[in-house]
Amino acid sequence: MAAARRLTSAAIRGRKGSRFPVVTAYDAPFARCAEDAGIDILLVGDSLGMVVLGYDSTAPVDLEDMCRHTAAVVRGSARAHVIVDMPLGSYQPSDADAIRAAIALVKSGATSVKLEGGETACARIAAIVGAGIPVVAHIGVLPQTAGLGAGYRRKNDREQLLADGRAVEAAGAYAVVLEMVDPAIAAELTASLTIPTIGIGSGAACDAQVLVMHDVLGLYPDAPPFATRYAELGNIATEAFRSFGRDVREGAFPPAAAVTTTPSAAALDAPVYAISSKPRA
């Protein structure tokens, strides 16, 4: 059976002027959940450094981490477009380094890659696009280096932000993330650019909105103020673990065996359970 065709970067660019959701994913089970919910653009963010790996920032995340989690998300989805963050240090040194890292991510299953920076990143964007790999730009707050400067402060330098937006579009990016950009400036950027804007903490005028999965599901305690928690799965998980621990201590788990007859020799040789390897449609 031929693999299902994933949503293309050209199709996403064609959504300019419409509203569409994007959510991060880092593993197969939650990628499947998001896609089954109708979200067809998944971002394997280097935010995995904090929400999955327990680091204080995205800086320690390396290319191997991103390749491993990309492959997991791809295995858990079928049609979704999988954008993958290029981690700090993988694209800054040179165009050749940037192309090499982008190719590694594509070999892991990425449908496109994302890198941070406006005017200063245009050479890298153009080089990667020139190698045939679609690129999403990222301007406003740049998480990979924010902690080295002013921190996570809303960006309101209108002239610089407009220049950054125009520059990444001209360099060949098919979409641009606006992180913590003043909403009025984000609206102006959205109106002036021909590529979709993907907002995070940048107001409602952006073409798309992206949130970190752990913030949506209530799995991370330090959600930013602009995030809406649509569930509190962290609390549910804690209660499930508490119930399991109580049952073990009280002897209620494992439950008494339901089978009272002696199993046949054939039954003893049969596997207890089987894991399906059937690919998703």
Structure notes:
The chain has about 280 residues and is of the alpha/beta class. The chain has one domain (about 10-235): Alpha-Beta Barrel (TIM Barrel), CATH 3.20.20. Helix content is about 40%, strand content about 15%. The chain has 12 helices and 8 strands. Strands 1-2-3-4-5-6-7-8 form an 8-stranded parallel β-barrel, surrounded by 6 helices. Strand 3, helix 5 and strand 4 (about 110-115) form a beta-alpha-beta unit. Helix 4 (about 65-75) runs parallel beside helix 5 (about 95-105). The relative contact order is 0.12.
Attribute tags:
281 residues; alpha/beta; TIM Barrel; eight-stranded parallel β-barrel; 8 strands; 39% helix
Q: What is the rounded Rg?
A: 22 Å
- What's the number of domains? 1
Helix-strand sequence: HEHEHHEHEHEHHEHEEHHH
Protein structure class = alpha/beta
Proportion in helices: 25-40%
Which runs of at least 5 residues are low in confidence (pLDDT < 50)? none
